[in-house]
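In the design runs reported in the main text, the only information available to the sequence generator was the tokenized backbone. The following block is the verbatim input for one such run; it is reproduced so that readers can re-run the procedure and compare outputs position by position.
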């Protein structure tokens, strides 16, 4: 007993010493943990003040933020790590201290919530969806499909009547159709092939020498239209004389226009060169143009046989006019399909830095956005033509009160219509999947907010594309008219008109690519002018216009009433 008592007493002393050491270490560990918590909370608070567009914040919010939690401010809410206590002695639980009562001058502390995200959501503008799944302008999509079904059925019926008249009859109908096949069909098919070659040539030339081609097209169209008009006048037939006079009148207007836009050429050349730079990054961007030109050639070949069959149909003139309007709408839709495809690829490159799939964009243009292409193809050419007419009337109004009222009324009306339907809308249709009218309004609003209305209003890219089609049509007229006058003179005027129409339409399809690139450059700049893909060309132009050092020679616009 005497030996065991000192041993028990010694063990008790050691336990007291261990307990005393733990008491000394515990406040130190608690202070270290509190300091770490404060430093961690200060770090997270500094991250929370980052800009929402900061890459670090975007990465943590989207992917990495789930691994972290916002620590509580009060260390009393943390559960201390368990410590071993001697079995012999237990410490009485410390009574919790009541929280300090808030003074009336200090606001109560905000409660801290444990969240899975590193940052609390901040209100910011959400980006528009780039993959809209809805079909746009469904009514006009249905109308175009119905029109194509009827047109294909009617053309096949006319071809059947033509073949039946060629094989089944033995009289004048058979001789007439044989004469048409011999003296009309070869020239028209040759004009189709020539227009495809010209279409490829023009597009390649614009991509290689954009600055030179603007000057070349302005004056080559003047020369080609003048030459074709003089050629038709030399045939000395009433029909060819009428066509020749129209071409000569157009060449005079073209020459005056070329002189009038001389001061705009330098700036438009810069924009065209700059807008065509992204095309080299997409090796397959020309494929939609090739597909549409191939489809256009096949449809025109069948369409020509339908025209031949219509000559033996009651009221052939009305039937041929209907066929011409159907062909014009169809080829315009083909052109705008290419426009939408290129616009989506280039717009996503500008707005998001993405290299979008051309094939996917082409499929989207043929499906979800086809209704907008049909609506735009039906109304945009008419709207732009009437707007030009209204502006011309506004220039010629003079001081006559009646003409002044009529001109202002027409210009007001056409300006309103143009703001609700214009060719700039195809960029937002392709990028965001909007309807045609809404896209037109939004795009024009962007131009107004960015103070770009005068710049886009003075752009001559659409005029250059139009004149390129006219130039191809005149070249086809010279070839077909000379050939037809040699083999069969009565068909000269008819074949000249068909050749001009085919050459113009096929070239317009190929020129959709540069037109779409320029439209994307303007529209995307208006949406985000600080993008790194844009230089100071437009900004410098705006500064020169504001300072009065550059006067944009546009036709008068309607002044908006200021409240």
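Verbatim output:
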């Amino acid at each position: 007993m005497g030996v065991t008592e000192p041993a028990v007493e010694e063990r008790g002393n050691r336990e007291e010493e261990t307990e005393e050491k733990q008491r000394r270490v515990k406040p130190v560990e608690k202070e270290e943990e509190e300091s770490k918590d404060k430093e961690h909370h200060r770090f997270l608070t500094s991250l929370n003040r980052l800009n929402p567009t900061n890459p670090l914040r975007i990465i943590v919010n989207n992917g990495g933020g789930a691994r972290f939690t916002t620590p509580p401010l009060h260390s009393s809410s943390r559960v201390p790590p368990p410590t071993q206590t001697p079995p012999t002695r237990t410490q009485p639980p410390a009574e919790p201290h009541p929280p300090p009562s808030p003074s009336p001058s200090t606001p109560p502390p905000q409660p801290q919530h444990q969240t899975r995200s590193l940052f609390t959501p901040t209100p910011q503008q959400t980006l528009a969806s780039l993959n809209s799944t809805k079909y746009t302008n469904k009514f006009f999509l249905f109308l175009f499909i119905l029109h194509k079904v009827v047109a294909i059925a009617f053309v096949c019926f006319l071809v059947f009547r033509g073949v039946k008249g060629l094989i089944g009859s033995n009289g004048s109908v058979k001789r007439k159709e044989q004469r048409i096949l011999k003296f009309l069909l070869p020239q028209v098919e040759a004009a189709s092939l020539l227009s495809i070659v010209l279409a490829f040539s023009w597009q390649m030339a614009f991509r290689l020498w954009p600055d030179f081609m603007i000057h070349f097209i302005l004056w080559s169209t003047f020369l080609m239209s003048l030459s074709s008009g003089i050629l038709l006048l030399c045939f000395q037939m009433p029909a060819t004389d009428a066509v020749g006079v129209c071409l000569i009148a157009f060449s005079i207007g073209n020459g005056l226009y070329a002189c009038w836009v001389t001061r705009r050429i330098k700036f438009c050349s810069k924009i065209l060169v700059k807008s065509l730079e992204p095309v080299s990054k997409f090796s397959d961007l020309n494929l939609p143009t090739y597909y549409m030109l191939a489809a256009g050639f096949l449809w025109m070949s069948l369409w020509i046989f339908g025209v031949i069959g219509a000559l033996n149909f009651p009221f052939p003139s009305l039937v041929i006019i209907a066929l011409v309007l159907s062909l014009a709408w169809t080829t315009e839709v083909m052109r705008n399909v290419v426009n939408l495809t290129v616009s989506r690829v280039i717009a996503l490159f500008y707005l998001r830095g993405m290299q979008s799939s051309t094939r996917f964009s082409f499929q989207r243009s043929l499906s979800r956005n086809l209704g907008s292409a049909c609506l735009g193809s039906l109304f945009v050419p008419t709207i732009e033509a009437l707007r030009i007419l209204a502006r011309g009337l506004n220039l010629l109004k003079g001081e006559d009160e009646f003409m002044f009222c009529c001109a202002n009324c027409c210009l007001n009306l056409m300006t309103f219509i143009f703001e609700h339907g214009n060719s700039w809308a195809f960029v937002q249709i392709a990028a965001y999947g909007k309807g045609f009218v809404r896209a037109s309004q939004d795009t024009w609003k962007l131009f107004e907010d960015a103070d770009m209305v005068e710049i886009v209003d003075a752009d001559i890219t659409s005029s250059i594309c139009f004149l390129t089609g006219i130039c191809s049509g005149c070249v086809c007229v010279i070839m077909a008219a000379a050939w037809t006058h040699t083999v069969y003179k009565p068909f000269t005027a008819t074949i000249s008109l068909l050749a001009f129409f085919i050459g113009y339409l096929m070239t317009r399809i190929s020129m959709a690519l540069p037109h779409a690139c320029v439209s994307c450059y303007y529209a995307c700049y208006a949406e985000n002018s600080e993008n790194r893909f844009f230089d100071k060309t437009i900004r410098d132009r705006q500064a020169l216009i504001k300072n009065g050092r550059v006067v944009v020679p546009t036709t008068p616009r309607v002044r908006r009433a200021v409240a």
